[in-house]
């Protein structure tokens, strides 16, 4: 038995060296990727989301989504290798895992769901980063001219600036080679989360009571009709789901790990640390934000100007948001780039535009050079430009984030992981485990469905009050 295991491990090591590159990822680098991927712009809407659901359902919903995310992440971790979770062949991407576990007929559905949501997340991050950059300018304006001043700022310039930066960073190598960017982004996410939490707690202390109601925003208060109240509650589910966006990049993160210890075990530890830390943050920030503002909680905690002072701390928090989302953008964009470039490489195996590598020495760092292919330069730049233009057209923070989260949650976070796990681990139909997994999938489907309805209603309503490419905040 020992000799057989040695042979298996030797075979795995040979496969890992031969397939495309040697992997050096650890539990801690994977945890950094997880935190970077999960703690994103969604944290800023948690106070508003809890306000739509109230003290009874709001915090409970945040915890429930955390549990579902962690549970299905563990199922998905066992599908990184097939047909066995520790000794099978690597599946480098989410789609590879679907193909190996469920067959090619499900690949198209998964591909559309995964990559449309990856691109949707990039759009959401672009919008959020631009709003945070504008919030810095508006915060300074309010500080100088008073809180009632009109401090309108055009969003297009900041969307374009973020897009230019991402065009440059998009030429970086694969996800494994930018662990430093994920670590920096993870630090930033902790920093602005702590600032938001601290400001909320300080506000609760200042006004001396915990605000909010058992069932959230009330109908008729501040002219909120029943339909709007209902759509907002549905949209809140999408926003919380968006805050836990993770499964669509889990396999790609797991593919960066060393072969020893087994990747599925290491990834489960990374998910436990990453999602556990995230859940604590989300519960604390959502609850503190609601306690501070009650049913008037702004849609974006740090840019909705529930806080005006200290203005310099608001500026720092928003700067941290931008830095974090610059890194998170790359975590979510690299799988899109990799899939597209793999397709081009197989389609035109002899084309010089796709395969010829050019080397340019950087003027400020002569010892460092920049390697690229023309197809990589053009295709990555084009994708970032398209994302930037869409962000200018639909700059609605809560509604867009809610729609992205709602669409991604059931198919990518629940349906495919549970279905792949049943196939991979040969869970028999009718057993207790099979019934539980199927029930979980059905319940989450209906949650996603009502969240989609609420988010679409929010976008339709927002379009009545906005002019594309001329957005002012």
From TrEMBL:
Subcellular location per the Swiss-Prot or TrEMBL entry: Membrane
Highest taxon listed in the record's lineage: Eukaryota
GO biological process: amino acid transmembrane transport
One cellular component term from this protein's GO annotations in UniProt: membrane
Domain Amino acid transporter transmembrane: 24-459
Transmembrane segments: 27-46, 53-73, 115-136, 157-174, 180-205, 270-291, 311-332, 377-397, 403-423, 435-460
Main subcellular location: membrane
An example Gene Ontology molecular-function term: amino acid transmembrane transporter activity
Any Pfam family: Aa_trans
Coiled coil start-end: none
Protein keywords: Amino-acid transport, Membrane, Transmembrane, Transmembrane helix, Transport
InterPro entries documented for this protein: AA_transpt_TM
Entry protein name: Amino acid transporter transmembrane domain-containing protein
Organism of this sequence: Amborella trichopoda
């Amino acid at each position: 038995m020992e000799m057989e295991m040695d042979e298996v491990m030797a075979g795995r090591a040979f496969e890992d060296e031969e397939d495309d590159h040697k992997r050096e990822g650890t539990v801690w680098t994977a945890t950094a990727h997880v935190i970077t991927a999960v703690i994103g712009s969604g944290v800023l809407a948690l106070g508003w989301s809890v306000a739509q659901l109230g003290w009874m359902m709001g915090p409970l919903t945040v915890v429930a989504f955390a549990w579902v995310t962690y549970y299905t992440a563990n199922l998905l971790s066992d599908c990184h290798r097939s047909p066995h979770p520790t000794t099978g062949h690597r599946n480098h991407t989410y789609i590879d895992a679907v193909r190996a576990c469920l067959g090619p007929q499900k690949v198209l559905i998964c591909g559309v769901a995964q990559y449309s949501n990856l691109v949707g997340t990039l759009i959401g991050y672009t919008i959020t980063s631009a709003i945070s950059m504008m919030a810095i300018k508006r915060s300074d304006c309010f500080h100088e001219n008073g809180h009632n001043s009109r401090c309108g700022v055009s969003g297009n310039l900041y969307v374009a600036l973020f897009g230019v930066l991402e065009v440059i960073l998009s030429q970086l190598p694969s996800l494994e080679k930018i662990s430093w960017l994920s670590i920096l982004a993870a630090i930033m996410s902790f920093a602005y989360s702590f600032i938001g939490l601290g400001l909320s707690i300080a506000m609760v202390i200042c006004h001396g009571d915990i605000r909010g109601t058992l069932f959230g925003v009330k109908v008729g208060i501040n002219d909120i009709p029943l339909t709007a109240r209902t759509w907002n509650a549905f949209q809140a589910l999408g926003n919380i789901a968006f805050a836990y966006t993770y499964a669509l990049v889990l396999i790609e993160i797991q593919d960066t790990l060393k072969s020893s210890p087994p990747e599925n075990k290491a990834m489960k530890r990374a998910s436990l640390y990453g999602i556990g830390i995230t859940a604590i943050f989300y519960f604390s920030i959502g609850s503190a934000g609601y306690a501070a503002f009650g049913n008037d909680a702004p849609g974006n905690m740090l840019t909705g100007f529930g806080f005006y002072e200290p203005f310099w701390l608001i500026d720092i928090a928003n700067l941290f948001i931008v830095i974090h989302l610059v890194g998170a953008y790359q975590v979510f964009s690299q799988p899109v780039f990799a899939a597209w470039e793999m397709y081009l490489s197989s389609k035109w195996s002899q084309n010089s535009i796709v395969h010829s590598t050019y080397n340019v020495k950087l003027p400020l760092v002569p010892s460092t050079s920049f390697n690229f292919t023309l197809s990589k330069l053009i295709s990555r730049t084009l994708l970032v430009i398209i994302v930037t233009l869409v962000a200018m057209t639909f700059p609605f923070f809560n509604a867009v984030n809610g729609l992205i989260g709602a669409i991604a949650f059931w198919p990518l976070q629940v349906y495919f992981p549970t279905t792949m796990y049943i196939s991979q681990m040969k869970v028999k139909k009718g057993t207790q485990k099979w019934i539980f997994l199927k029930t979980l999938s059905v319940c989450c489907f209906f949650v996603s469905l009502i969240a989609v309805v609420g988010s679409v209603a929010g976008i339709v309503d927002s379009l009545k009050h906005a002019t594309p490419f001329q957005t002012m905040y």
